[in-house]
Give the backbone structure.
Amino acid sequence: GESVGLHLPTLSVQEGDNSIINCAYSNSASDYFIWYKQESGKGPQFIIDIRSNMDKRQGQRVTVLLNKTVKHLSLQIAATQPGDSAVYFCAENIGNYGQNFVFGPGTRLSVLP
Amino acid sequence: DTAVSQTPKYLVTQMGNDKSIKCEQNLGHDTMYWYKQDSKKFLKIMFSYNNKELIINETVPNRFSPKSPDKAHLNLHINSLELGDSAVYFCASSQDGQDTQYFGPGTRLTVL
């Protein structure tokens, strides 16, 4: 089912450190997952995706880890920069016809100078 | 070139009015969506359209009606606006239901 956050979790990291943002998903049958970044006043922007037949995928400075056993997804950002400050969402595809994405409640990442 | 565009960006209106938000995508995608984002940033899918056919209709009030004149457009009509409709509405598109969704910039709707 969906999770409704009472407040937006916040993660504060020092510039240059690595960030890890976690997400628990709901449906063990979900086979496709996406991480989005949403900057203030903008729409969510695709960062990286992963399918359920993988447990790790790397992009430029970002890595997504998938643990299907505990239904957990994480986004790792290396050498966090001020431009990484945003709200990050995980989304799982739970639709029968592959067209129903459920978004997590989001995590606000604040990068400290 | 803007991939997914929405108009207007801001919409302020009185309760009881009827309003529309327009969305266009120039990506050649087959599927378009509407999402509602509340004040706590929670994103919920409202509708999706695939080749002009409604695929998903979440439990949204029937005051909301998506209309797709062609594959590149999915407009959202809202009748009898209520205070609780105040939110940011995002349009998105994807090549198919298994593919990445590209979001528009959002329309901030404020109902007074």
Remarks:
- Chain B touches chain A through 24 residues (CB under 8 Å).
- The mean pLDDT of chain B is 91.
- The CA atoms of residues 4 and 25 of chain B lie 4 Å apart.
